[in-house]
């Protein structure tokens, strides 16, 4: 007994002194890590200790961060769900060999309990950022009793294995922090599915958000292989016991990590830039609209860079053509022809090349079947919709079949794999030909929604300037054609003034939706329950009734799904009223410039809105029988219906019907500063080009979420356009 006490005392003393000598990367069973000390890995890269996240949190956590990076970057948190409130807790190793975090009262806050026991257990922080529990004498990684790399939080570091290991019963999951101040698990996760056709899936809560596509023996079906000269050496290990991804940096001096970002719902690779002393985003998943899970619905195929990105697989047609055409794709597609299962010559399979294999949730795999056997297996089962080789290495081997709807297919030019889809026989003959053409087609894949938006901005700037510099041709607001229109008889319903007055509570203030340049707008409810918006034109209008009627008729002819629809009008007792469809989501500015509502506008939605506005504008400028220059395109003139489809309002109508603007085209500038092209604002010259300018400003606002007219960048004393212009020049020069 006395011997033991002396032994303990001596070893404690030895450790006390050795602490100041060198090894501060390790603690043993006789030491504890207190709040005021840290462990530092041997080469000084990582540090383990207590920290307070963010700026407002009162909570303390035990974590690991980069020692030499001035921005505190935590890569692992022990007690992410059980914060510590004071500085009195300690990290210890129990006599049983568990690593425990104890508070003042010796209550366990967090613990790591190895399943196997060591003789003399130590905890060591390795140069990789891995905190390991091991036997003092055994440094073999295979024999670690426990390691933080097996229990990651939100960060995937070089050397870590992300995936599963049946022998160890492990399945590593990355889970984002709830927010900047709170490391507890958020609802954004990344997990490798434990099946014999494994794939990696990111979840937003309980809904799938992104998937890699199944492992096809050489790569993930939806992930092009990583170029060999990359700075990152990415490896997948797949055998019957384990399946995991890992990576290393080919240049060890580059610091890089992969992290789940809850606020943006992206998995980012961030690389430390020593010159700017910041983390730079090297890549992101999902990368584009087609990367988002099931963008195109069942039997749809997503083709990045194409507009619209979704189409039905050959041999399929939209389930709801109406919704599909409005770019509402989630109902997907159905077989174009009825087919009956297994009846002779009624169904067969067509090969689709270069696709990301569909969602494997309802798939079945046998690694030893041939493709021929696979075909038979699928054909025999009437719910089987497709088959493929489960491994494409070499000649291809194995069999995967898909039951039911095929979800989340995308075209992967020069990547992907062959998929055989069940079709009616008459289609299979004709389709195989179509498909051949398709695979030859060079499809430009724009890396991401963001880059396509940036491309649009650049194109817009280019078009605008080349237009402007070429010649200052001026087109008046409405070009002729009105004569022939007069002869035709358009049926625009005339509403009764009494009815409209009742519907709007006699134009009372509480029904007022807003005030446009040409008079107030009211919300009304017709006797049949239909909700409408009523615009009451200025009573000072000097326009005659005949012209007014005529022009309203002209406007009523403008029908496009991205224009607000005119339901009717009313002219009685000096009142001139226009009745429009009512838009439940009000206007774009209501969402765009509101910090909480703007969160509802994700990239795909913003992209759809931009697209819709462009279509509406193109229609006004080119495709309608009249040529309309809007002259006041801005966020508040873009209304949103209940599905957030954009509809341009105040087109032409306002100018034409407002009366007092009709005579002096250049005497009074209509429009809103901030959106007006310089030549219009200063010289009163307007053309479709000035609308394009306004569209560009709107585009920047939609992308940045900032109002052009406000000074948001005090450092360079600029508005949004000026700021973008400066950034553009410093980026390209
Ligand atoms: C905890 O904080 C108190 C007051 O700031 C300080 O006196 C004490 O030394 C700290 N203890 C540790 C372990 O850091
Ligand atoms: C940490 O705090 C403990 C108790 O508060 C104290 O005994 C110890 O000397 C401190 N260590 C350092 C390195 O400040
Ligand atoms: C420790 O116990 C005391 C008395 O039971 C209690 O007041 C205190 O809140 C406890 N501290 C912690 C950190 O749980
Ligand atoms: C990439 O990593 C694997 C193992 O992880 C290794 O075998 C291979 O040599 C590495 N390649 C390069 C170029 O570093
Ligand atoms: C997500 O990324 C943004 C932009 O890079 C950053 O500001 C934010 O702090 C990140 N959020 C988390 C939780 O890491
Ligand atoms: C559907 O089939 C009909 C004839 O059977 C054909 O005319 C049509 O083009 C097909 N539509 C699609 C979208 O494949
Ligand atoms: C897989 O296919 C092989 C060859 O056709 C067959 O012998 C085996 O029984 C199949 N395994 C399963 C689980 O169906
Ligand atoms: C088709 O295959 C699936 C998956 O193997 C199975 O669940 C289903 O029962 C099969 N249906 C028929 C009719 O064989």
UniProtKB/TrEMBL annotation:
Catalyses which reaction(s): L-threonyl-[protein] + ATP = O-phospho-L-threonyl-[protein] + ADP + H(+); L-seryl-[protein] + ATP = O-phospho-L-seryl-[protein] + ADP + H(+)
Localization in the cell: Cell membrane
Signal peptide interval: 1-23
EC number: 2.7.11.1
A GO cellular-component term linked to this record: plasma membrane
Topological category with respect to the lipid bilayer: Single-pass type I membrane protein
The entry's keywords: ATP-binding, Cell membrane, Disulfide bond, EGF-like domain, Glycoprotein, Kinase, Membrane, Nucleotide-binding, Receptor, Serine/threonine-protein kinase, Signal, Transferase, Transmembrane, Transmembrane helix
EGF-like domain ranges (all copies): 286-322
Ranges for domain Bulb-type lectin: 24-146
Name listed for the protein in its UniProt record: Receptor-like serine/threonine-protein kinase
Organism expressing this protein natively: Glycine soja (Wild soybean)
Lineage: Eukaryota, Viridiplantae, Streptophyta, Embryophyta, Tracheophyta
């Amino acid at each position: 007994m006395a011997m033991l006490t002396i032994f303990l005392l001596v070893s404690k003393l030895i450790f006390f002194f050795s602490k100041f000598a060198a090894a501060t990367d390790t603690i043993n069973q006789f030491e504890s890590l207190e709040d005021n000390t840290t462990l530092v890995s041997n080469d000084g890269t990582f540090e383990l200790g207590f920290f307070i996240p963010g700026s407002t949190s009162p909570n303390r956590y035990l974590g690991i961060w980069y020692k030499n990076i001035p921005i505190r970057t935590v890569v692992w948190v022990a007690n992410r769900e059980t914060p510590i409130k004071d500085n009195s807790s300690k990290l210890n190793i129990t006599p049983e060999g568990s690593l425990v975090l104890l508070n003042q009262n010796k209550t366990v806050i967090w613990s790591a309990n190895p399943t196997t026991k060591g003789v003399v257990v130590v905890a060591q922080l390795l140069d990789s950022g891995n905190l390991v529990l091991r036997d003092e004498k055994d440094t073999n990684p295979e024999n670690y009793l426990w390691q933080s790399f097996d229990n990651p939080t939100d960060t995937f570091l070089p050397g870590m294995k992300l995936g599963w290991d049946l022998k160890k019963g492990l399945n590593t999951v990355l889970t984002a922090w709830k927010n900047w101040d709170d490391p507890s698990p958020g609802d954004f996760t990344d997990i490798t599915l434990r099946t014999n056709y494994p794939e990696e899936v990111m979840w937003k809560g309980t809904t799938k958000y992104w998937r890699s596509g199944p492992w096809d023996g050489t790569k993930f079906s939806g992930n092009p292989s990583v170029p060999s000269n990359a700075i990152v050496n990415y490896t997948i290990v797949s055998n019957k016991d384990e399946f995991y991804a890992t990576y290393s940096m080919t240049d060890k001096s580059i610091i890089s990590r992969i992290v789940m970002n809850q606020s943006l719902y992206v998995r980012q690779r961030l690389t430390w830039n020593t010159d700017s002393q910041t983390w730079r985003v090297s890549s992101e998943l999902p990368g584009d609209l087609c990367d988002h899970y099931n963008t195109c619905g069942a039997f749809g195929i997503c083709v990045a860079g194409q507009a619209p990105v979704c189409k039905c697989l050959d041999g399929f047609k939209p389930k709801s053509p109406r919704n599909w055409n409005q770019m509402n794709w989630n109902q997907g597609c159905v077989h174009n022809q009825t087919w009956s299962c297994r009846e002779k010559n009624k169904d067969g399979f067509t090969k689709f090349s270069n696709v990301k294999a569909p969602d494997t949730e309802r798939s079945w795999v046998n690694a030893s079947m041939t493709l021929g056997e696979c075909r038979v297996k699928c054909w025999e089962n009437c719910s089987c919709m497709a088959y493929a080789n489960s491994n494409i290495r070499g000649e291809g081997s194995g069999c995967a079949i898909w039951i039911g709807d095929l979800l989340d297919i995308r075209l992967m030019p020069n990547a992907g794999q062959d998929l055989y889809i069940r079709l009616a026989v008459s289609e299979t003959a004709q389709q195989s030909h179509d498909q051949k053409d398709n695979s030859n087609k060079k499809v430009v894949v724009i890396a991401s929604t963001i880059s396509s938006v940036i491309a649009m901005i650049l194109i817009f700037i280019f078009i605008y300037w080349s237009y402007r510099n070429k010649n200052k041709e001026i087109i008046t607001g409405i070009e002729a054609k009105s004569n022939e229109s007069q002869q035709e008889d358009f049926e625009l319903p005339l509403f009764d003034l009494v009815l409209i007055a009742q519907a709007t509570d006699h134009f009372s203030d509480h029904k007022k939706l807003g005030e446009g340049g040409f008079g107030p707008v009211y919300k009304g409810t017709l006797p049949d329950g239909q909700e409408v918006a009523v615009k009451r034109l200025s009573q000072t209008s000097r326009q005659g009734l005949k012209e007014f009627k005529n022009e309203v008729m002209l406007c009523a002819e403008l029908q496009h799904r991205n224009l607000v629809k005119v339901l009717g009008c009313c002219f009685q007792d000096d009142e001139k009223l226009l009745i429009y469809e009512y838009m439940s989501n009000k206007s774009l500015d209501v969402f765009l410039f509101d910090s909480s509502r703007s969160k509802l506008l994700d990239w795909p939605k913003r992209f759809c809105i931009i697209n819709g506005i462009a279509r509406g504008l193109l229609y006004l400028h080119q495709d309608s029988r009249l040529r309309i220059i809007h002259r006041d395109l801005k966020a508040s003139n873009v209304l949103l219906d209940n599905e957030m489809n954009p509809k341009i309002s105040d087109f032409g109508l306002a100018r034409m019907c407002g009366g007092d603007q009709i005579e002096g085209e250049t005497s009074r500038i209509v429009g809103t500063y901030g959106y007006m092209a310089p030549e219009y604002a200063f010289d009163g010259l307007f053309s479709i080009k000035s609308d394009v300018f306004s569209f560009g400003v709107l585009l920047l606002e939609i992308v940045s979420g900032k109002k052009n007219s406000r000074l948001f960048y005090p450092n360079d004393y600029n508005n949004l356009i000026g700021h973008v212009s400066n950034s553009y020049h410093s980026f390209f020069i």
